[in-house]
Amino acid sequence: MRKFSLFNRRSLTALTLSVAMVLGLVGCGKEDGVAGGSGGINPDVVYKAEYLAVPDMNSVVNWKETDGTLHILSAIYGEKREYKLCTYNLADGSTTETTMEGVTEDRYWSSAIFNEDGSLEVIEIKEDYDEEWNFISREMYFNKYDSNGTPVSSEDATEKLQLGEDAYISHFMKDAEGNYLIGSWDMPLSIYSPELEKVGEISTGNTQIDGLCMTQSGKVVASSWGMNGGVDVAVVDVAGKKLGTAINTEKTNGSAVVWPGAGDTVLYMNGNQLYSCDVVTGETAVVMDIMDMDVNPDIIQSVYPLSDGSFLMSYHDWYSEGGGAGMFIAKPIDPSEVKERIELTVATIYASQELNDAVIKFNQSNEEYRIKVVDYMTDDWDFDAALTNLQNDIVAGNVPDMIDMRGINMPWRNWAAKGILTDLYPLMEADGEYAKEDLLENVREAYEVDGSLYILPSTVTIQGLLVKEKFVDGITTLSPSVLLEMEKTLPEDTDLFWYNYQGEIMYSMVYNNMDSWLDYEKGECYFNTDEFKAVLAYAKEQPAEMVWDDSVTLPGQLAADKVIFYNVGMSQVPDYQFNKYVFGEDITMIGYPGKDDDGVRLVTNGCAMAITEQCEHKDVAWQLAKTFISEEYLTGIHAWGIPTTQAGLDNFIYEAQHMEGEHGYSWDDVEMSITSATDEEVEEFLAILEKADELQYMDTAIQKIIEEEVAPYFQGQKSEEEVADIIQSRVDIYLKENM
Amino acid sequence: MKKKTSEANVKKASVPRKKATKRIWKTRAKLGAFLAPSLGGVSVFYAVPFLVVIFYALVDNPISKRFVFLENFINVFQNQAFQLAAWNTLKFSLVAVPLAVIISLLMAFLLDERIPFASKFRSVYLSPMMVPIASIILVFQVLFNYNGVINVVIEWFGGNQIDWFKSDWAPLVVLLLFLWKNLGYNMILFLAALGTIPREAMEVALLESNSAWKMFWHIKIRYLSPTILFVTIMSLISSFKVFREVYLLTGDYPYDSLYTLQHFMNNTFRQLDYQKLSSAAIIMAVVMVIIIGGLYIAENHFGKDMEE
């Protein structure tokens, strides 16, 4: 037998092939992109917010950083209008404040730009009105000030600028050659020489420029909402008087404004993250997650990169009491300097302002724990895809500690049945600040599952059909047979619903009315009944699409009894007051058959926190969850909708009955000034609220089956019997599968 | 003295045996090292997941992992959707697999005779394997849609339109799709096997005045029995894979005659119902093992003299 040797040809070949196979696996698991690339944030770079004691920035006209000095121009609106020029030295924190001279009451500063030496150039507008405030004329002045705020020159630039009388200037900048670019959303971008002589215009076609800035490398960049969604940026060829090829960034929310970045990049906020986009290569990259600095991303107003890798950020905090405006530097620090805290995650599909705000407040006040928001919403706002991603993570074992269950179709019941969510009542009891009796009874009834509470809703909306009481005397819910009977008694020119076309009939009589057609507990459905066939036949008689008649309005039709039901959600007492006014008579809210005969449903409005079983620090997670039913939250700026606690509801009613002044409501040709609600109105509103003890839920899987099958029926290709049988067969399988 | 000598002889004899044992272990270690990547892959992608599936089938949910023994299996057996799916899957396999084997065998016999254009027929029968699934679906939709070609022809002849995908005709359409897709491949396997039958055996049988049927049954089928087993198993597996086409044609919840075990498992997976899914998968695996085991036993019985 030949002796085995590693160094013969066959052995070496086999070894080489084996190594080659293994090497092929080395690339697996590598993250896309480089550090800081579009695939993710560089984990080796951590930013910390250092707040600057800058002077009041509540009405900043413009600001600029030059050579370590921050120059800020603010408008002060007091007894008379003033403009202040402030400087802030970034090195030692010293400040100066100068009130600008020469400002008169009949003029205001439309736009201002700082030069590199800190001098200021301003477009000042003087408008004349007659005694009845009719517009007479407008003059534009071009003023220059030195870095100390001392006026240098002022010239009447009305004729030079050649802007119309009603021109509203929103873009005013100077490029690297000293040319001025002035424009607005609704007029072309005009180019002026350093002597303010107009040299041309940049045609933007159908593109409306929302932002204009200059990168640190000197490239002028225009930003706008793209045709295919997302914000486009394009380099402006000033000499050629044209826009370059648009680059689509990943920005899909907020405004279309971008800020100058280092080199050839521009910066922008997208969701909770700061992005950069290279306007030459088109590459985008995530720079940082603002939430990691315990700063609310929603308050960021502008960003500017400093030469040491920090970012200067201006903000306006609308959410905190006494928040106001200011600036901070996002400074990169050594990750080892960051105190390690135990991290909990909260998953959400679209991070709301209130969630971000609550998480930041928690992080700022907690030394031991930190909460991270994980936002699953996709760039193209696909809720289903986002939910699938969240479910995939749960299935893969990457279960978040908390989940924000706001939204109508979050499958929290399914997750609770699978043991993914934890019962919140024991946590509530252990904490002691709240008891289950603090929640409204109908809310408990709607949200409890076998005596357990798996999500803690903060606010809700009542959903149902508003109708004049005279039409529903003795009727508590609108089963399809009731609706069909009512329809037979209506005059020719009267409809049950405003949108009386096939799709809407299916929504009203089938999709919103699911409890009439199936029994989840028994696993049975009743689509092959004469009642369902009658609904199909009635729907088929209606137009395929909404037929618009501009001569009539829904408020008018409701008042004149030409439309009977109005499908609406009410979140405030004034909603009820206004709708009652529109109808012109006593109204009530009625709904569809459910577990009982009340019919009105609840929709989860604000944050609704759930804590997962895998969370190792449930008591800590509860501290965040309970903030959403606190008095501070429910009376704060974020809360919208009916509070789910008795204390919150009491305050809600109190506010409705002690409204300051009048609030205008309008709907088509109906206008009303809402004032404090009367006791009678409050009683009526609460009577409707008490009826709502079930959650609104639409089974989209069944809806999809029915929509598929009724389409050929509405086109006349199939009979009611065929369609009903097929729907019965398919839905039956669906129900039995879930038993 | 003799004893010492015999002891010395024993000692001398044991030295070569030890060397042989050591060499064997060394060889085995080297073989193991070369096999390790493949074994590792099989473990990671097959063995371990299968064990995980068994674990999931025995607990109440993947979070609390409370052992519930056979409760999940009982729930699945009692689930009416599972019962329907299992029955439909069994019915389809019982019809489609024998047809796929018999028809492809007959086609192979036919092509084995020297008929004109045999090679072209072979290419034609193999061509469905090259067609992408999306194209197959498109073709079948064009043919069998409610307003498709087949219904148009039926209406020409005065008949009524048939809802091919949403009526009791649906399994027939799927059967046609399955046979169209798989006959060519099976036929090629049989053709190759027919080529290995020794001519001498056939000539001897002919000389001994045996009938064509006897030659077919006692010689050809005997020699083809391993291939028949293989084709049957492959067709059985393919009969399960037809879910892909059915899903693309009819979605998550098809007409009840098309609802198979794969639909059940696919839907329970999407609903995160891992316990139902795992239990159903294990039940299906056990049934498959029984069926394939039975096929092997049958093949052993009929084909044993071929091996001898």
Write the layout of secondary structure elements.
The complex is a heterodimer of chains A (739) and B (308).
Chain A (H helix, E strand, L loop, with lengths): L8 H15 L22 E7 L7 E7 L2 E9 L3 E9 L5 E5 L7 E8 L5 E10 L5 E11 L5 E6 L1 H4 L9 E4 L5 E5 L2 E6 L5 E5 L8 E4 L5 E6 L5 E7 L4 E2 L3 E2 L10 E2 L4 E6 L2 E6 L5 E6 L10 E6 L5 E7 L6 E10 L8 E7 L4 H13 L3 E7 L7 H13 L6 E3 L7 H6 L7 H7 L9 H7 E2 L2 E2 L2 E2 L1 E10 L11 H10 L5 E3 L4 H8 L8 E2 L4 E2 L4 H12 L12 H6 L3 E8 L2 H11 L3 E4 L10 E4 L3 E4 L6 H8 L5 H4 L7 E2 L2 H12 L5 E5 L2 E5 L4 H13 L2 E2 L4 H15 L5 H18 L2
Parallel strand pairs in A: 26-27, 26-28, 33-36, 38-43
Antiparallel strand pairs in A: 1-25, 2-3, 3-4, 4-5, 6-7, 7-8, 8-9, 10-11, 11-12, 12-13, 14-15, 15-16, 16-17, 16-18, 19-20, 20-21, 21-22, 23-24, 24-25, 28-39, 29-30, 31-39, 32-36, 32-37, 32-38, 32-40, 34-35, 41-42
Helix pairs in contact in A: 9-10, 17-18
Chain B lengths: L1 H57 L12 H8 L1 H33 L5 H9 L6 H12 L4 H8 L13 H25 L4 H9 L4 H30 L1 H8 L10 H10 L3 H34 L1
Helix pairs in contact in B: 1-12, 2-12, 3-7, 3-9, 3-11, 4-7, 7-9, 9-12, 11-12
Question: In a nutshell, what does this entry contain?
Answer:
Chain A has 739 residues and is α+β, with helices and mostly antiparallel strands.
Would you mind describing this structure in some detail?
The complex is a heterodimer of chains A (739) and B (308). Chain A is of the alpha+beta class and 739 residues long. Chain A is built from 18 helices and 43 strands. Chain A folds into 3 domains: 292 residues, TolB, C-terminal domain (Neuraminidase), CATH 2.120.10.30; 291 residues, D-Maltodextrin-Binding Protein, domain 2, CATH 3.40.190.10; 87 residues, no CATH class. In chain A, 25% of the residues lie in helices and 31% in strands. In chain A, the strands form 11 sheets. In chain A, strands 32, 33, 36, 37, 38, 40 and 43 form a 7-stranded mixed β-sheet that branches. In chain A, strands 14, 15, 16, 17 and 18 form a 5-stranded antiparallel β-sheet that branches. In chain A, helix 9 runs antiparallel to helix 10 and helix 17 packs antiparallel against helix 18. Chain A is globular, with a radius of gyration of 31 Å. Chain B has 2 domains: 58 residues; 236 residues, MetI-like (MetI-like fold), CATH 1.10.3720. The two termini of chain B are 54 Å apart. Chains A and B meet through helix 1, helix 4, helix 17 and helix 18 of A and helix 1, helix 3 and helix 11 of B.
